[in-house]
Amino acid sequence: MHEAKSTILEDGQITQEEIDALEDSNFKTHLQEEFVTELEDGVVTAEELQAHKEAKKAEHQAMHEAKSTILEDGQITQEEIDALEDSNFKTHLQEEFVTELEDGVVTAEELQAHKVAKHDENGEGHKNHGIGKKGHGHNKGSHSHNELDGDDL
Q1: How far is CA 113 from the centre of its chain?
Q2: What is the pTM of this model?
């Protein structure tokens, strides 16, 4: 995918024809969904790419701030999830902690157990978004900013 991404961005823009020519159907679908509005005229310009990148960066930062706020007390409540503005993050948390949220709260113990289970599931664990430990978190440029991609949270 990285090679395809580099090739498609060589001239600083993305055309519908370039997307149509991609062999990686997941990457093709991702680009078509991600740039649906920008592709109405058949091309995503350098300016549109930059604006998109800045918007994604702002969304990602807001998600991190929301995550920090929710975890301040070491637990997650349904009320805190309901108050989130980021619908993708809200859905992710509701799906990730469906069982734990049956009583309306994900306790610190449940968060820790979930983190351990994710660590075991991923081999060495997911390094981009740790939970419950200040100072551990995002490694820049190491993953997609569209969703949490298998986060501990």
Answers
A1: 22
A2: 0.57
Residue 61 identity (one-letter amino acid): Q
- Please give the backbone phi and psi of residue 13, each rounded to the nearest 5 degrees, phi first: -145, 170
Query: Which residue type sits at 8?
Result: I
Asked if 104 contacts 78 with a C-beta cutoff of 8 angstroms, the reply is yes
10-residue mean pLDDT series, the chain (153 residues): 76 91 90 92 94 93 89 93 88 92 94 86 54 41 39 50
Q: What angle do CA 106, 109, 113 make, to 5 degrees?
A: 95
